Amino acid sequence: MVGGFVGRAVGAAVLAVALVVVSTAAAIWWTARQDSEPPSDAIVVLGSAQYNGVPSSIFEARLEHALQLWREGVAPVVVTVGGKRGGDEFTEAEAGRDYLEQAGVPAEDLVPVTDGVDTLESMRLVAAEFGQRGWSTAVLVTDPWHAMRAERMAEDSGIDAASSPTRQGPAVQTRTTQFRYILRETAAYLLYRVTGESVAGAPGIG
Fold this sequence. Notes:
One of its GO terms (cellular component) is plasma membrane. Pfam families: DUF218. It is a single chain. The protein contains six helices and seven strands, in the order H-E-E-E-H-E-H-E-H-E-H-E-H. The chain has about 210 residues and is an alpha/beta fold. The chain has one domain: HUPs (Rossmann fold), CATH 3.40.50. The strands form two sheets. A five-stranded parallel beta sheet has the order 5-4-1-6-7. Helix 1 (about 1-30) packs across helix 6.
């Protein structure tokens, strides 16, 4: 009888974990399909890889979307985010700022936040920048699958955040790619909710 009870308890625990994983993945998928563009203090572009100051294709897709939002008047300022890896000359934030300035955004409308090494640290640094400037609201630009975790980390850092994910770039090209990103983001989101820590990884995951 004791063995049967233990077996049922283990089965119930496994089922509960499976339900949490599936519901989280479904929420990530649902959030990825949303597009919120409320008037805000700033558009915040989450960084990704750059090569000697040139944004990667993933990063470029985010920057182009942020540029469109800025042109539409969603916010007067674009905040570019991201530090640099060992050996890099430029930070992701600097590469993003330079890209947008070359695309026509005035330098005074660009704010690089250059020290973040992952999403959580970046959101905390952005929140500190917001606090210094008296800002509170942001539209986050990142890949669709990263949007839910980025929003959660921004909100937990004190930013009133919405997300407007890019619909272009390698992260959304194929269903296989989308499925892989959803799985990885599900793990990263659950890790954050359980531990309060971020996780470094592929572009849009850390």
